[in-house]
Amino acid sequence: MAGELTQEELAGEESQLAKDQREGMDFFAASSSEQTHRPRSGVGSQARRPGMMNAIRLQPVNENGSVDLNRLLPDATRTGSENVLATSCTSDWQQVQPGDVFIALPELAGNEENGHLCVHEAVARGAIAVICEEPVPVFDIPTYLVSDSRVAYGKLCQALASYPSQSISVVAVTGTHGKSTVIALLDSIFAMAGKHCGKISGLGCYDGMSHSAGIEVPVAAELATRLERMVAVGCTHAFVEVSSEALGQASYAGVEFDSICVTNVSDAHLDLHNSVQSYRNLKKSILKHLSPDGMVTLNADDPVSIKWLSHIDGPALTFGAKDQAEVSGELIVEHSNEQEFTISAGNQSAALRTTMIGEHHLSNCLAAATIALSYGVDLQTIAAGIEAVESLPGRMERVDCGQGFPVFVDAADTAESLRASLRSARHLSTGQVICVLGDPRNATYSEQLAIAHVVTRMADVAIVARPFPAEELSVGDSHQRARVEVVDDRRRAIACALSVAQPGDVVVIAGSRWEPQRAYGSFAVNTEQGDAATTRKLLYARTEQAPLRLVG
Question: Alpha-carbon distance 418 to 420, whole Å?
């Protein structure tokens, strides 16, 4: 069978995984738990038929060649007497082929058609069963009424892919900020350690064979296909970015995480989750996906996520700048183009120098280091892997065209992330901090006020382009320090910021967007688009007359 490991190869893979995990946990023998990660084993997968990701048809690798829906969905309310053996599925009625199981998904915030209204079309195209969460008037084929059809969709996709998360160590990174950066750091660290790893992240994906653009909320079928491909090509680990939106849509239903890292949990994304508590509860629900012997990594500096420690029965590790963290870090010096810090774990420590700056980057480095240590990667290799990540798009990305002041392009679009970016800018500045604000997208009114509160107190000049509601920035009080300028568009806002900046000032262009460029077998940032490219062009066009100096 294509992609399947022999017994000797399988035993060797299990032995190496067990060794890595044993070494990692031995390093933390003094921690509160002495349990180890569970070694993974399983078979590979066969090549799949091409097709749209949302309409993927996976051929299961098991003795029956199919998935028994009665066993997969034991709590479903069934109609029809037939026992359905699924060999393929789709949630798009237009992609249904004879023999498919059709999953009727609910409408999502007006962006997706309600699949329950299309079941007759799906049946007419040859569906052999329907999975739904609302009663549907279908009597010719079996139906399975479930409490959440998205969860059922994820479980079925993972089953058809032969549960790839049971054959590879899936490391999930969640949190309000820092997810993509932590995954980029992990990817570099494990590559430095000689591991072949896949990743699914907003900054880019790699399935073990080819690179592609980033994904923030993967469709269940696409996720199953990518994980299955990672197993087939022999990846040892899969790093996945898990956003609150992905959790809300049950994108990872049926996936078992070998390790979970929580970077931080702040009061954000209320436009999607209505209240702070519902957002926190949704984030916390990721723990339900943890394998019985899985590891949890928590931020000791984050007051919300560290409270989860009391709800975790298995092994857990903490990271942070505080002394009580098991993996700690200390910022030594910070410059506009680099910073130096130390990472300490147990009786070992390493000094690092990174071209990415900010206390938030230090926290991300500590998160990645803690995960890598738990898998047996030594601290010096971790340091080398972290230092190899010189820049990431929109992560305090420095744009240097010979100007006499630092300019950073940053993706910060929430109050907390903006506070972290402006704090770093304030540390570097001997003059003014000039901030160009981005479009807050779907931020609620209270979130917009929080952004205005941060920028008017931490910046000296705030330049905003419509459609950002500039009236929120006009709320004045005795602590307001920023001068607010409103311009017509974002390009003009960036140009305005660069034109007023002088040596000693620091410019932060916040709320940045960036576009990836895709090519076969490669992935890179498209340097011809986005705020970084705009800033670079404006800096080169900026005329700076240097005083004439005669030599000789």
Answer: 5
What sign results for the dihedral spanned by CA atoms 479, 482, 485, 490? Answer: negative
CB count, 10 Å around CB of 68?
A: 14
Cβ pair 237, 190 in contact under 8 A: yes
- How many angstroms separate the CA atoms of 433 and 459, rounded? 5
What lies within 8 Å, CB to CB, of 312 at 6+ separation is 287, 296
User: In 3-state terms, what secondary structure has residue 398?
Assistant: strand
Cα 292 versus chain centre, distance: 23
Question: What radius of gyration, in Å, describes the C-alpha atoms of the chain?
Answer: 25
Give ∠ CA 269-272-275 in degrees, rounded to 5.
75
CA angle 23, 29, 33 (to 5 degrees): 110
Per-residue pLDDT tens for 256-293? 999 999 998 876 555 454 567 777 777 888 999 999 99
First-last CA distance in the chain: 80
Structure tokens at 310: 């009391």
CA–CA distance, 434 with 412 (Å, rounded to integer): 14
Which residue, 317, 483, 319, 509, is CA-closest to 413?
A: 509
- The whole-angstrom separation of Cα 165 and Cα 67 is 17
Rounded distance between C-alpha atoms, residue 529 and residue 213, angstroms: 15
The per-residue pLDDT for range 408-440, each reduced to its tens digit, is: 999 888 888 889 899 999 989 999 999 998 776
Quick one: which H or E segment has residue 486?
Answer: strand 483-487
- Residue (of 285, 237, 241) closest to 261 by Cα position: 241
The answer to whether the pTM exceeds 0.85 is no
Query: Among all chains, which residue has been given the structure tokens 């082929």?
Result: 97
Structure tokens belonging to residue 107? 């409408």
**Residues in CB range of 39: below 8 A, 6 or more apart:** 14, 17, 18, 21
Answer left, alpha or beta for residue 112, where phi above 0 means left and psi between -120 and 50 means alpha.
Answer: beta
For residue 83, what are the contacts with CB-CB under 8 A and spacing of at least 6? 68, 69, 70
d(CA 518, CA 348): 41
What are the pLDDT digits (tens) for 351-400? 999 999 988 899 999 999 999 999 999 999 999 999 999 988 888 899 99
What is the C-alpha to C-alpha distance for residues 321 and 323, in angstroms, rounded to an integer?
7
Name the strand (E) or helix (H) holding 201: strand 197-201
Q: Name the residue with higher pLDDT: 282 or 174.
A: 174
